[in-house]
Write a structure and sequence with these properties.
Elements lengths: L3 E5 L3 E6 L6 E8 L6 E5 L4 E4 L5 E3 L5 E4 L2 E4 L2 H9 L5 E5 L12 H10 L1 E7 L3 E2 L4 E5 L2 E6 L4 E8 L7 E7 L2 H8 L5 E3 L3 H6 L12 E4 L2 E2 L10 H14 L6 E8 L3 H12 L1 H4 L13 E4 L3
Parallel strand pairs: 4-9, 11-19, 12-20, 14-19, 16-17
Antiparallel strand pairs: 1-10, 2-3, 3-9, 4-5, 6-7, 7-8, 12-13, 13-19, 14-15, 17-18
Helix pairs in contact: 1-2, 1-5, 5-6
């Protein structure tokens, strides 16, 4: 992991449809000062929304942030790209209520960051170190944490559709690993969920251009899969986007079983809590007795 903070070298522009709203929006990532973190700016309303776990307003099918009465939704892919490419400080300007979904992955944003270049800032990064074992369970999902030198994540998923089934993805964070192994993994949906989501006013912008559609043993996308375990890799991508809301790079080992935005938020809130984050510099202690953290539905 990089020792010093980084921002991007210059503006990066993106545009496309929002996955859930169906609104066409444009987004621009701009350089930002050291210690400013990641901030979303709604150019259509003038609102500023910090990318922090305290601003999470919803986790149903996407992560939604809110501040001062303004919201920005489906932030997880852009945040995963920034976190995976180790960008500490940036302003993301958006002219609508939802970020463009692009191709359903973080690849376009990550490639743009890599091509545009990074700017090192003369301020050291402040790491959040996992210093004891912990575990959160929620609604059939589980996330366990333990000390480690780097950020290591293992994700497992289990879906009834045989095209997905049981699969896993393992990842150690470096920008090179993220760009190659995780950024290309696209969001996905079961065919039988589409009508239900649209009746709820969601997935208005969803299509085979920005999501994998699975029905039983069939993948409807002509392209097929980019990885045999693309589904687990995308869940890992979402997890990175959600823990990016900590505002600090994490050093620890994480096991996520059937993760989703709700349990991701719970573990992020725990790591961000005063009682935990007040001890970030303690040495790793893999021999400590596990702490069980129960989160009720």
């Amino acid at each position: 992991m990089r020792v010093f903070q980084h921002t991007i070298s210059g503006p990066l522009h993106f545009s496309g449809v929002g996955l859930h709203t169906g609104a066409v929006t444009s987004a621009t990532i701009l350089p930002a000062d050291p210690d400013s973190g990641i901030v979303f700016r709604r150019t259509d309303t003038g609102s500023v929304i910090p990318a922090t776990v305290e601003c999470v307003a919803g986790t149903a099918y996407a992560t939604v942030l809110s501040a001062g009465g303004a919201k920005i939704s489906t932030v997880e892919h852009f945040l995963a790209a920034l976190y995976g490419m180790e960008i500490d400080n940036a302003v993301v300007e958006v002219d609508g209520p939802e970020l463009p979904i692009l191709d359903g992955s973080a690849l376009e944003v990550s490639r743009a960051i890599a091509s545009g270049g990074l700017a090192q800032q003369n301020v050291r990064r402040q790491f959040l170190r996992v210093w004891e074992n912990g575990k959160i369970r929620r609604n059939g999902s589980m996330v366990a944490i333990s000390p480690a030198v780097d950020l290591e994540i293992l994700v497992t998923v289990d879906f009834p559709a045989s095209a997905i089934g049981r699969q896993w993805a393992k990842f150690t964070l470096t920008p090179e690993n993220f760009l190659k192994e995780i950024a290309p993994a696209r969001t996905f949906i079961l065919r039988e969920q589409i009508d239900e989501l649209r009746e709820a006013g969601l997935a208005k912008g969803g299509s085979l251009d920005n999501a994998i559609v699975v029905e039983g043993d069939k993948v409807h996308n002509t392209e097929g899969l980019r990885f045999p375990n693309e589904f687990a890799r995308h869940k890992l991508l979402d997890f990175l986007g959600d823990i990016a809301l900590l505002g600090r790079p994490v050093r620890g080992s994480i096991l996520a079983v059937r993760p989703g935005h709700t349990v991701n938020r719970a573990i992020t809130e725990y790591l961000a809590s005063t009682g935990y984050s007040s001890f970030p510099e303690l040495p790793v202690s893999p021999g400590k007795v596990p702490v069980h953290i129960q989160v009720t539905a």
